[in-house]
């Protein structure tokens, strides 16, 4: 009986130490983010190219309202704070549950919080671009839509999902392939494109702890084809996602709290 009690106590102590270590690392990671945000000149080279600061016209292409807050808020905060001219193209109103009109309005509310000019936010409601796992979007059609936005707004840089779409949603993946088609299309403007890197499930739900692995991953790319962007204002992500009131249910509150995409974005250049 004594041996069993001792073994059980050791087992519980082991789990306690693991939990305590995770809490310490979590706090240390948040402190790292806050320390960088307090630095008036963080050493981040994304879109700077080591030269004098150059303001870019950037197009963020997403599939649904709330994608910008759930996945891209570190990137948005970085671009806005850097003075870049950000446009958002949302390719659907997210009408899978019949809430499309409300979700479109919520996107505009979130963009106010994220300080994206509303005249630079465009939401489409095309019959061939409807929200849903069974809805396949034509990549050539997507490329044509994006080409028009790029030409109209004199876009220099396009940012979107990678081929895994973070959550694996087919609409996210289709947007990526649409951007890839755009890059290989023979049109006059020369642009560069970046994708948000999807991570495995452990990293995805590790919260701010993932900043260390993200920074290490970016350091391996010496040619500047990968950048790690920390979210200097993670609280803004919560407020922006809360603006999507129709989607702000308990499991999304947990997602925003524990998702690494609230705290860091790793962008990789699309070749």
Structural topology:
Elements: H1 2-38, E1 57-62, H2 67-70, H3 73-81, E2 85-90, H4 100-113, E3 121-123, H5 139-152, E4 157-161, H6 165-168, H7 170-184, E5 192-196, H8 201-204, H9 210-219, E6 226-230, H10 234-242, H11 250-258, E7 264-269
Parallel strand pairs: 1-2, 1-4, 2-3, 4-5
Antiparallel strand pairs: 5-7, 6-7
Helix pairs in contact: 4-10, 5-7
Distance between the first and last residues' Cα: 64 Å
Tally of helical runs: 11
Overall 3D shape: globular
Major β-sheet, in short? 7 strands, mixed
Q: Please tell me the overall pLDDT.
A: 87
Radius of gyration of CA atoms, rounded to a whole number: 20 Å
- Specify the helix fraction band: 40-55%
SSE sequence, one letter per element: HEHHEHEHEHHEHHEHHE
Strands in their spatial order, largest beta sheet: 3-2-1-4-5-7-6
User: How much of the sequence is in beta strands?
Assistant: 5-15%
pLDDT < 50 stretches: none
**Helix/strand/pairing category:** alpha/beta
């Amino acid at each position: 009986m004594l041996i069993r009690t001792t073994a059980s106590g050791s087992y519980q102590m082991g789990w306690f130490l693991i939990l305590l270590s995770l809490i310490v690392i979590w706090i240390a990671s948040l402190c790292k983010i806050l320390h960088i945000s307090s630095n008036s000149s963080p050493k981040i080279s994304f879109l700077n190219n080591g030269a004098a600061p150059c303001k870019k016209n950037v197009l963020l292409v997403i599939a649904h309202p709330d994608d910008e807050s759930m996945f891209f808020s570190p990137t948005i905060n970085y671009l806005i704070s850097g003075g870049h001219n950000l446009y958002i193209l949302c390719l659907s109103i997210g009408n899978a549950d019949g809430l499309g009109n409300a979700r479109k309005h919520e996107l505009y509310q979130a963009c106010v919080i994220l300080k994206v000019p509303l005249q630079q936010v465009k939401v489409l409601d095309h019959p061939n671009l409807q929200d849903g796992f069974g809805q396949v979007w034509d990549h050539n059609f997507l490329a044509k839509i994006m080409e028009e936005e790029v030409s109209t707004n004199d876009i220099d840089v396009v940012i979107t999902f990678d081929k895994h779409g973070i959550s694996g949603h087919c609409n996210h993946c289709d947007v990526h392939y649409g951007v890839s088609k755009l890059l290989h299309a023979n049109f006059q403007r020369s642009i560069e494109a970046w994708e948000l890197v999807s991570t495995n499930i452990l990293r995805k739900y590790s919260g701010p702890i993932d900043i260390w692995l993200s920074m290490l991953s970016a350091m391996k790319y010496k040619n500047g084809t990968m950048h790690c962007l920390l979210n200097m204002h993670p609280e803004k992500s919560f407020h922006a996602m809360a603006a999507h009131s129709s989607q702000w249910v308990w499991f999304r509150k947990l997602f925003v709290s524990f998702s690494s995409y609230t705290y860091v974005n790793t962008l990789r250049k699309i070749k």
